[in-house]
Hints:
By secondary structure, the chain is an alpha+beta fold. It is built from 8 helices and 10 strands.
Amino acid sequence: xxxxxxxxxxxxxxxxxxxxxxxxxxxxxxxxxxxxxxxxxxxxxxxxxxxxxxxxxxxxxxxxxxxxxxxxxxxxxxxxxxxxxxxxxxxxxxxxxxxxxxxxxxxxxxxxxxxxxxxxxxxxxxxxxxxxxxxxxxxxxxxxxxxxxxxxxxxxxxxxxxxxxxxxxxxxxxxxxxxxxxxxxxxxxxxxxxxxxxxxxxxxxxxxxxxxxxxxxxxxxxxxxxxxxxxxxxxxxxxxxxxxxxxxxxxxxxxxxxxxxxxxxxxxxxxxxxxxxx
Length: 278
């Protein structure tokens, strides 16, 4: 079989392309005329020629002669590749034309790597906008903190990048995770959101341990006893610019890390002295 010049006409190319796209089906001439919008004479001539080459077979049912691909032809796979390559070249040319049309319309065309960078920047912008909207909607002097205890009876703590100074000169470095409450959320929703954002752990507030005006920072603090929903991280912490370290510690280690006043009720809940100063 001579493969060179196999697709020597647009009519033959259209027929081959159609049959290789519908390899399991059989068609009669009038049916192909209607689908391919080619004359019956041209279709019959090409199919007879391709049948002689061994690529097609025919089957008579009643008064109709059906044509179909001969998959047992030793050249079937080779011809299939030729058709696929021809189709891909055509698609490539159509794509190039489409890109050229878009360029002429002054539309931006970008590669995949550029798109990845673009989506990354969009994500960063969304985070910035969300942060800005939060600042406008936060209750500045109401903080919700999570007292999160895991299965090993360890407590979740965070170390802040920027240390805050209290009224008496004390410095806040280590603390329980949490943050400012938004106007449109509950205390529980706030602590769950903040703990997830700061540490990547999903928690569920169980009960409020205490609410007090902090003696060193003049803000209201609500302490929530929380349980871990999952013992592993469920997300990447979103505030690495604020949180230097995340650590699980035994309750007695809190004494060594805290340099600010520990709420008496929290101290009692963790089995520590009621009057600890850390």
